[in-house]
Amino acid sequence: MKFLDIIGMSASNLWRRKLRTFLTVLGVMIGTASIVTMVSLGIGLKATIMKEMSSYGSMTQIQVYYYSYGGDNKDLRLDDAAIETISQMEHVTNVSPRLSMQCQLFQGKYAAWAQLFGVPQETLSQIPVGEGTLPSSTSGQLELLIGNTVITDFYNTSNYRYPYYEDKELANVDLMGKTLFTKFEDTYMDDGTVQPAKKNTFKVAGIVEGGPEDYDQYSYGVYVDIDALKNYLKKAYRGKVIPGQPTGKNGKPLKEFVYNQAIVEVDKSENVSTILEAIQDMGFQANSQAEWIQSTENELKIIQAVLGGIGAVAMIVAAISIANTMMMSTYERTKEIGVMKVLGCSLPNIRELFLAEAAFIGFLGGCVGLIISFILSGVCNKVLPEAMGYGDAKISQIPIWLALLAIIFAACVGILAGFFPAQRATKLSPLAAIRNE
User: Fold this and answer.
1) Backbone phi, then psi, for 144, in 5-degree steps?
2) Which end of the chain is more exposed for a tag (fewer CB within 10 A), N or C?
3) Given pLDDT bands bounded at 50, 70 and 90, which one contains residue 389?
4) If you average pLDDT over residues 404-411, what whole number do you get?
């Protein structure tokens, strides 16, 4: 018997028992739709969370921190010597120091506190600019690149109301067009006295790309060229303690700058943990996105397994339904099987006939179930992102490999479920089958 003959006879036999075939296909359809939808939710949720996490930093970056207050090792400082030591470590490709301090921005009756970061030009060049340009390192003056969400932090100095958070309106501040005054934080001396901060006027070079509701690692800060910042601070605070900088044991300002933070770039993500431990052994506090992402990935794998298991239960029920249908078919077609054997039909052909019918059921159920999965996926992407606070993200994603695997899996489930009934059909005695009523 030719392969096409087997396919034709299988389709004909299923068509003769339309209702039973439909009900069995319905079971496979529900099982396929369940497992594909559940797995797609796991894939989409993982992709959404990873995308959100990646916006806060790279997996090959390590953040090193220095706190000037507290701690047992008073001589530990994140200065140029420490930066050089870290940069000489194997697998470290770049070390970007950051000098940060609190600053207050003024324009008219509005003011806002923000964190100011002095970073190298290499780091500045990675920040997307929505309006204006990047701060220059050759202009001879300090220029500001303001985060896109900083404008939401401006408050009215006359009544201390925050227009954005209380009235959902942005403060009447023109960061690019009008003069923006800046004041660094006050410096608290060891003897209890306070060194008042100076009020300055700096040029706003640009604003980070994005609106007030767009958040990433550059949204909240104010960025300047680190060399321009150090030159300004040396001149403005000559002989005085610089805001945010530690002092020596005699209470006097240090000659060199001590950085608040450094971003360490590692060549490969698998080397991050080694470099992280080495930096922590130096006495610095350090962490990386890789630790957080690895922990989150482990949790997402558990979620995916649970969701996939729920769908698998439905598929197991569908497999039992296929096995029951095919077993009933062998009982009903006993005489037909006997006639086929008497006419010389080989046992493999009889087995293939029943397996083809089971595969047909699985294949049809898989195709229809996949279509339903795409519909359910679209509904999930309309409803769930807003409810979960992910905006317009795709919570459910069905990649091509999952779609193809679902159809193949459904057909394989049908074949496996129909194997035992097919074996029974090959073992029937021809004479007993013909005599059966």
Assistant:
1) -110, 140
2) C
3) low
4) 88
